[in-house]
Amino acid sequence: MRKVLGKTMLWIRWELLLMAIIFWQRGQTDMNETKQSLGHVSVVIVGGTGDLARKYLWQGFFQLYADQVGKGYTFSFYGGGLSPAGKGTEVLFGILKELTCPSELSAERCALVKEQFLHLAQYHQLKTSEDYEKLIQLIKLQIEQEGMVEAGRLFYLSVPAFSYADIADKINNTCRPSHNAWLRVVLEKPFGHDFGSAQFLSKQLSGRLNEEEMYRIDHYLGKQVVSKILPFRKENKKLLDPIWNKHHIERIEIVLKETLDAKGRIQFYDQYGVIRDVLQNHLTEVMTLMLMNLPANLSNSAEILQNKLNFLASLQYIDRSNAVIGQYQAYNGEVQKELNKTKDYFSLTPTFAGVVIHVDNAQFEGIPIFMTSGKALDERVSYARVLFRRDTFCVQDPNNVQCKSKQIIFFLGHGNLQYPAILVSKNLFKPDLVSSNWKEITEYKDVNVLGLPLNDYYIQSPIVPREAYCELISHVFIGRKDSFISSEGLLASWAFWTPLLDSLAQVFPRLYPGGVANGNLLNFQLRGHQVTFSHEAVVNVIKTGLEENFQVMQGKFRSSDMVSAWAQELVERLASDLLLAAEKAIHEEGQFHLALSGGSSPVALLRSLALNLYTFPWRNTHIWQVDERCVPHTESGSNFQSIHNLLLQHIRIPYFNIHPMPVHLNQRLCVEEDGGPILYEKEINQFVNASRFHYILLGVGHDGHTASLFQDTKLDSHGEQLVTLTESPIKPHQRMSLTFTAINRAQKVGVLVMGKSKHELVTQLSRIKGESTKYPITKVQPKSGTLIWYLDYDALLG
Ligand code: BG6
């Protein structure tokens, strides 16, 4: 009893002392005054009464304050908003009163810390430059009056991204501290909508703020498990090194399933969709931390950011053939309601996506990385797991530990387990703890996690759970840049995702009912490097009569053979004709020489060829280019790059069978004196029997050009020349191209024309007899070879 009484007395004395200090400070400084001062930090949350601030930010700053009490810094906190002071103050203090105590503080101590925190917080209207100026004057005055040294100013922009540039301008113009103090500006996603817009936003910001001043938040990086992925890999490096590669890993899954829908945030969501909302950022960050090269020093932010960049650069190109998308059925109604759309409006925004990603490096090539996320699914759970190959053949005793799945799971939360944890199946190894703030879990609930009962895992978990935002706010405070997204990292991630997003822009997502009723509707399967839904949808398959009645139609077009079909069948037919041509050539000559055009028409064909990994005789096939744009092969406009991304990287073809056009010589592009066309011609003469390609695949542009031979090109002036430099009316203007001499010498020429937009052209071409300078394609007339037209129904029939 005396003990309890003594304790209470002590608390009362401690409280009195603190109250005295508080009054002495008159709310201007905090409880750290007695320690040697490290300086004053002003925190400004722009959008300080908004939803995010209410839910997470103030709690995060309160935690920061509580953590820092007694460590030498003093603080002031400002909530900024568009409302006038009276209303804003009321809302702000409504939020602050609800702050909950960090678990490590006793209730009494917490009450004091909270009271002090409330003293240090104020609301300010922040609309105009004058408002920002006034606030800064106030900050300066307070610091001066208290005789404090300024440590830094932290601005948290919890506002829509379209206002970033304007606010960054104001901060840059009026809110910079003197040169001894730091400026940090925290930004919330979305950081752009695709590569172009992210680049634009980045440029806008970089004109106003330095890279080291910007802290782009991805709250996944603050999740306790995510922030321990690298430390886990480092701590267990010796055990992981031998198995962290393609020989041992069977697949990787990165999953964020949600039961919630997008109701209430359609204004935002409908412009973004699931890929932009969570795959491009949160899930990409998780994947990167799992597979990037382990930095030698985990406290070296620059090294971590650089390794992340290297990893992103090693991802294989993806497009719609590597993804499936869905939309929950009620979504469109929500869109019509929240965006005031009419009943015939249909949004194509996906609320579900499943993507397969491959890494193009020796360590991980061939491992499928399944990334998936969706709203309105059957459960809320997020995790990333590495599933290892089973190397034991179990003749009997299937319950033997060696016969069970081997996996490492970074379990981010919810699901069966309910708490964040790292799980390693016991048949792998016993991992070291990632931190002294983590504990091993040895009491097992009776649940299964991803196929194994809990007691089949070694499990470790944080001792004290902490919100991601709290963690990240503390990292802004200590300037840990690797917990944030760098400009380069952001652009690298968008560069990876943008081709997929572009290629999905017109794709109808599969509709799903939502919740458990989704059944197997969203399951997807891998075929080669591509994915498809594994079950037929009954809900929204649109089948027209035509599609069922016609398969492939054969006939004549411009007095040559023609094959016509719906796009998919047509491409399959062309791929199989190519296979026949290859087999024949290899049988007769031991090699098959195939020249491929650039542009959009061959895309579907190249994808389809990439699936013929095993059946096509790639080892004896030589790939040539029909034409090339005068840009480096590393640029996205390069035809060679698209042949590489769509086909070459997926197949096993000897390097010496690949013949890119030499547009880039002597560090310059397509300069006559560098003799690129002559070089290519020599190469053709050297490899191709009588310089007659076995197969040349062409497309036709809307203006009737083929290869890079345009109306204004001196089409007949090439004589015996096989390769030439040409000018295109559309950018990039400079091109290299095979000439009609080379084309008309080929054994077979296929012309692939697809899409409604080409119907007009196809009609024109069908009316022209013989050659026309207006339509260069009409000059394709193989001398002793055959020409065959592949026209899909859209192009042929409109
Ligand atoms: C946000 C997305 O960034 O992350 C939300 O905008 C998503 O749509 C959320 O629900 C998921 O985060 P968490 O922490 O709940 O997994």
Give a short summary of the structure.
By secondary structure, the chain is of the alpha/beta class. It is built from 22 helices and 33 strands.
Describe this structure in words.
Strand 19 (524-527) and strand 20 (530-533) form a beta hairpin. The termini are far apart. 34% of the residues lie in helices and 21% in strands. It is of the alpha/beta class. Residues 1-34 and 539-550 have low confidence and may be disordered. Bound molecules: 6-O-phosphono-beta-D-glucopyranose. The site of 6-O-phosphono-beta-D-glucopyranose (BG6) has 5 residues, from helix 10.
Structural key phrases:
798 residues; alpha/beta; Rossmann fold; Dihydrodipicolinate Reductase, domain 2; 3 domains; ten-stranded mixed sheet; eight-stranded mixed sheet; 34% helix; globular; disordered N terminus; binds 6-O-phosphono-beta-D-glucopyranose
Topology readout:
Layout: H1 2-25, E1 39-46, H2 51-68, E2 73-81, H3 85-97, H4 107-120, E3 121-125, H5 129-145, E4 150-157, H6 164-174, E5 182-187, H7 195-206, E6 214-216, H8 229-235, H9 237-240, E7 249-257, H10 266-291, H11 301-313, E8 323-328, H12 331-338, E9 352-357, E10 369-374, E11 381-388, E12 406-414, E13 421-425, E14 438-441, E15 448-449, E16 452-453, E17 457-462, H13 468-478, H14 487-504, E18 510-512, E19 524-527, E20 530-533, H15 545-549, E21 552-557, E22 560-565, H16 567-589, E23 592-596, H17 602-611, E24 621-625, E25 627-629, H18 639-646, E26 658-659, E27 664-665, E28 668-669, H19 676-687, E29 695-698, E30 723-727, E31 734-738, H20 740-745, E32 748-753, H21 759-767, E33 786-792, H22 793-797
Parallel strand pairs: 1-2, 1-4, 2-3, 4-5, 5-6, 7-10, 8-18, 22-33, 23-24, 23-29, 24-26, 29-32, 32-33
Antiparallel strand pairs: 7-11, 8-9, 9-10, 11-12, 12-13, 13-17, 14-17, 15-16, 19-20, 21-22, 25-31, 27-28, 30-31
Bound molecules: 6-O-phosphono-beta-D-glucopyranose.
